[in-house]
Amino acid sequence: MPVMLIVVAETIADAGLAYLGEHATVDQAIGLSPEGLRLRLAAADALIVRSATSVDAALLAAAPNLKVVGRAGTGVDNIDIAAAAAAGVVVVAAPRAVAISAAEHTLALLLSQARGIPEADRALRGGSWERERFTGVELHGKTLGVVGLGRIGTLVARLAEAFGMRVIAYDPHLGADRVRDIGIEPRQHLADLMAEADFVTLHLPLTGETEGLIGAEALGRAKPGIRIVNTSRGGVVDEEALAGAIRSGRVAGAALDVFAEEPLTESPLFDLAGVVVTPHLGASTVEAQARAGMEVAEAVIGVLEAGGRSRD
User: Fold this and answer.
1) Domain 5-97+287-305 maps to which CATH number in 3.40.50.1820, 3.40.30.10, 3.40.640.10, 3.40.50.720?
2) How high is the mean pLDDT of the chain?
3) Residue 189 falls in the annotated catalytic set
4) What pTM was computed for the model?
5) Does the first or last residue of the chain, that is N or C, have fewer Cβ atoms within 10 Å of its Cβ?
6) 233 catalytic per annotation
């Protein structure tokens, strides 16, 4: 039986690499340009990526033997699903692996924004003791609006309830009865949730439907003083519109882990008080990366051992 070749384009946990190595030859092609990666894929049976690699039609065309693409994380918006399907390539991910870490990071951002922790830290390290300047707000008794009630959104809701928050949710793909079954108050329209919530947290994939969902219109209908948290996908938020709403005072602040363009080192949001930013760290824990590496490795090997799907 021919030895299978798996190209790993981004770092995954050692346990996942070891598992792959038990079943196939592993080529760690990390940090390559798109052109360099295409060359390495000429004989590949499988490709594993995280979020930085764009798996588009050109990349797939450079890999005539490719049977499966694995995403070591949740969401596959950096993979052209239609092009993969047309090429007979299976796409798998690790949606369960990072849910806990992403939910905990969401709460960390929620708390950091509410209490101004990063700004207070910078001020104190700079020699300034400013207790009155950094008067924050409590989570207890506030209303949290969860947009997207999948694994991560549901976990965030449960964690928020432990802080004494009232949780409402909007999910265009879940009926009101299903949301109630989860134990959360449903809202039929995003505008209703935005008008009622003190904090809003986003947990949506990036699609044509969700791109720019939190933009000028949604923010214009928001409850004055609302605070926005996004750990899902950057393109869900119109960053220019959010910056404008914060400058106007309509939005009290925001905490963002993801951005429309990544990596990002400059943004109008960076200069605004009340904004907390992190560089896409939602899944960046030892535990989440170990789970993601193993989950995607097992999924990829499963597809390869099942024969994948032949190309037309």
Assistant:
1) 3.40.50.720
2) 95
3) no
4) 0.90
5) N
6) yes
